[in-house]
Amino acid sequence: MSTCTLVYLVRDGQVCLGFKKRGFGAGWWNGFGGKVRAGEDVRAAAVRELQEECGVRAALEALADAGALRFTFLAEAGKTIHVRIFRVAQFDGEPIETEEMRPQWFTPDTLPYDEMWSDDRVWMPRFLNGERVRGWFQFDANNQHVAYELEDTKEVVRAASSTGRAPGS
Fold first, then answer.
1. Residue 54 half-sphere exposure, CB side, CA atoms within 13 Å?
2. Which residues share a beta bridge with 129?
3. Which of 10, 14, 93, 162 is most buried (most C-beta within 10 Å)?
4. What is the pLDDT of residues 43-72, one digit of tens each?
5. Alpha-carbon span 83 to 65, nearest angstrom
């Protein structure tokens, strides 16, 4: 199981997402983050990834723990990723486009859910309400979530993206 980070910049009732231009999740809006390197602290990885992906600097203490999610991908022999989520309200600089991500600010009612991972519709509203999220999502061969457990909620869904495409396709 690999450990990754997911960082969301928040300011004035808005959240900054990045449009992933390459690699895993290309073609989808997401938070900023990535893999924790061997021997690297998860918070240090979050700060590093944030700067690499959108040019923003944040202090370790500026990262508010927003929860953890575990993702299982059936298409990849049950590959599992453990993701630590952080909210950052204090940071230096403005998000800039990089080779990997194109940042944009959204209000909660304008989030592009149809261009995001299907699980985001489930947990993101709780995150935006300031709640810590904890859960597990299982994805099918088309990278659509088919089952999840989120805090006290369990559900099996038949999720289909409105675009009918998997991330990166």
1. 30
2. none
3. 10
4. 999 999 999 999 999 999 999 999 999 999
5. 11
